[in-house]
Write a structure and sequence with these properties.
With 271 residues, the chain is α/β, with parallel strands linked by helices. The chain has two domains: 5-25 and 214-270, no CATH class; 29-209, 3-Layer(aba) Sandwich (Rossmann fold), CATH 3.40.50. It is built from nine helices and seven strands, in the order ββαβαβααβαβαβααα. A hairpin with a 2-residue loop joins strand 1 (5-9) and strand 2 (12-16). The radius of gyration is 22 Å and the shape is elongated.
Length: 271
């Protein structure tokens, strides 16, 4: 169990927060269940790509859900390779930035006319040396339609899926996990009929992980599990009620509110 602890420095009391790594336990219940089901399926059938589309990543603290996903993926095998592209929000050409960053990872000549084909082939070749590979990207979605997302799905991920299918037919088993998080919700038409949105999956294995706001009950249960015995049951109830009323349970607002209230309680106890 993770608890709050108080350290007395001079006349002041400092709260040592050790709760944040466990914030994904507040809810993300649907996302966690879906992740568990998908990762279980990947254990049984480790051929082909699996793309996790994490929506509205910043507002809902999707980094915490990604932490849970990564923990689950670690169980797929000890040997793995990660290509972390990072945030594509530099205001430039997303396609060029993505392609060149991945090419650098793979030691592919960026001047190649068939750059994407070369990148896809090298990525698949490298994946043969590991239990699985992870490719992670985060994009800002300022408009309802995102040109990079369309390009990524149709011009990169689909050819990658085709290449891996060819390898499967040749008896090679490779899994590549792509994690693409966005700061806004995805438009339905961008996913299209080719890309699945359920645990049942398809040959191309696309999975959408929408994350909901926290309910008052979610916050209360989380506080009872991770903040007691430092907080009483009544304090957990009071904090959950106020945080939900003030923030509507939106994680990016709710977490600072939780911190602030607990700090205030600590100051009162030290008075």
């Amino acid at each position: 169990m993770v608890r709050l602890c108080w350290r007395i420095i001079g006349q002041s009391v400092v709260c040592c927060f050790k709760l944040e790594p466990n914030l994904y336990q507040i809810d993300y219940h649907d996302a966690r269940e879906r992740i568990d089901a998908i990762v279980g399926r990947l254990r049984r059938d480790s051929t082909g790509p699996a793309l996790f589309l994490l929506q509205n990543e910043k507002q809902v603290r999707g980094d915490l859900c990604l932490r849970y996903l990564r923990n689950c993926l670690e169980g797929l095998g000890a040997e793995r390779r990660e290509y972390e592209i990072g945030a594509l929000d530099m205001g430039g050409d997303y396609v060029e930035t993505f392609s060149h960053k991945l090419a650098d990872y793979l030691e592919v000549d960026c001047r190649s006319e068939g750059l994407i084909a070369d990148v896809v082939n090298k990525l698949c070749e490298n994946a043969l040396n590991y239990s699985y590979c992870i490719l992670s990207i985060q994009i800002k979605q300022e408009d309802e339609q995102n040109p990079f997302l369309d390009w990524f799905l149709n011009e990169f991920w689909s050819p990658l899926s085709d290449r891996l299918e060819q390898m499967q037919q040749q008896g090679e088993e490779v899994i590549i996990v792509g994690i693409l998080s966005t700061d806004r919700y995805l438009a339905e038409e961008q996913l299209g009929q080719t890309f699945c949105r359920d645990v049942g999956g398809s040959d191309r294995k696309f999975f959408d992980l929408p994350i909901s706001a926290w309910t008052e009950k979610d916050i209360k249960q989380w506080l009872r599990g991770y903040a007691r015995p430092t907080l009483s049951l009544g304090e957990c109830t009071g904090i959950a009620d106020k945080v939900f009323q003030d923030t509507g349970g939106i994680p990016i607002d709710a977490w600072p509110a939780i911190q602030d209230i607990i700090q205030q309680l600590g100051r009162k106890e030290s008075a």
